[in-house]
Write a structure and sequence with these properties.
Helix content is about 40%, strand content about 15%. It is of the alpha+beta class. It binds flavin mononucleotide.
Length: about 350
């Protein structure tokens, strides 16, 4: 069952202090960020001169993400959306990152005087509502080198690195993805956790992933969570993902120099900047993180991809052939803590 916030937090409102009318759209943009299993594990608090972002660990995924690494990256993605939306709204700002294992506050975005947005801010802002995870096969069309360079620069701008896998290494990495699938699907706890966040296509849930995001039609979607939970589907999935990885126009590892909560927050911001840059260039993306989530495979992935640090995410990028369905989001009021001083 999906954890829910207490009613007092759900009904919190923000007023006074920073211009209220400008803040609601910025928070609405923040919550469009991607998150592991669409858990949306973030909370926001508006203070006199800042917006704070907190990890909501009640929405953790203890099996696939026992350390909260992906949870922190998800919050980092929401932080980047918030920053871009505030810039779009014409604020100057500074970001204070305080992520640590010891507390849930991840960052504080201090809002200053008026500052016109740059063209880059506007381009990324426009991409926020069109970005989504597209797990379908992509067109057999090369991504222009200039777009790939832009993606690499997007990661670099936020203290992370994007290592584009060479054609000669793609098959070896695809084999690791397949191995990761088989390992994860053989674990009933992994299957149970995933199934708890996957819903039939017609659902009132405001979080989790509708089965149509995995290409499942409406009728079979009714039993899809049950199938995910009950059967060991590792062999089928691994064959599919292996093909997606080896045939991916761009396969890239997002990596960081360190493996700390601060580095994860940076990786999340870098991820979102990469994804928004991709969307702005008409590109789709999806995740094949299995060889990072299965600890014994992470080092192999780093070696094969030539990464001299810590792989955080494995991304597949290309031109989508079929548009991906949108996933739901909770309301801003559901993720807003009572106003602070
Ligand atoms: C840190 C992180 C890890 C993710 N890992 C996976 C993954 O392993 N497999 C996958 O299919 N999607 C993965 N996703 C994508 C989410 O499932 C997706 O963002 C979420 O369902 C919301 O959908 P949207 O991206 O279309 O808005 C990940 C997203 C984030 C931010």
């Amino acid at each position: 069952m999906t954890p829910r916030l207490p009613a007092t937090q759900r009904t919190a409102t923000y007023h006074g202090g920073i211009a209220e009318a400008a803040l609601r759209p910025t928070l609405e943009a923040a919550i469009l960020a991607p998150s592991g299993h669409n858990t949306q594990p973030w909370l926001f608090r508006v203070t006199e001169d800042a917006v704070e972002i907190y990890a909501d660990r009640r929405r953790a995924l203890p099996v696939v993400d026992p350390t909260g690494r992906e949870l922190t990256m998800s919050c980092g993605a929401a932080l980047l959306n918030l920053v871009i939306a505030l810039r779009h709204a014409g604020y100057s700002l500074s970001v204070e990152e305080v992520a640590s294992k010891d507390h849930d506050l991840l960052a504080r975005v201090r809002i200053g005087g008026p500052l016109p947005p740059t063209r880059d801010d506007e381009r990324l802002f426009a991409a926020i509502p069109i970005r989504c995870t597209n797990r379908r096969p992509y067109e057999d069309r090369q991504v222009p080198a200039s777009s790939v360079t832009e993606l690499i620069e997007a990661a670099k701008a936020l203290n992370a690195h994007l290592a584009v896998v060479t054609d000669t290494s793609k098959d070896a990495i695809a084999a690791l993805v397949a191995e990761g699938d088989r390992t994860q699907a053989s674990d009933p706890h992994f299957r149970g956790e995933l199934a708890a966040w996957v819903h039939p296509n017609r659902t009132a849930c405001k979080d989790g992933i509708p089965a149509c995001s995995f290409g499942v039609p409406s009728l079979p979607s009714l039993v899809f969570p049950f199938i995910l939970r009950t059967l060991d589907w590792g062999n089928g999935q691994s064959a599919k993902d292996r093909q997606l990885a080896s045939g991916s126009p761009v396969l890239a590892v997002l990596w960081t120099d360190e493996d700390t909560p601060r580095a994860w927050l940076n990786a999340g911001q870098a991820l979102e900047r990469v994804l928004l840059t991709a969307a702005a260039n008409g590109l789709s993306a999806s995740f094949l993180n299995q060889p990072i989530e299965v600890p014994s495979l992470r080092l192999h992935l780093a070696e094969i991809a030539g990464v001299r640090g810590y792989p955080q995410l494995l991304l597949r990028i290309g031109y989508g052939s079929v548009p991906a369905p949108a996933t739901p989001r909770r309301d801003v009021a559901d993720v807003l803590l009572p106003r602070g001083g």
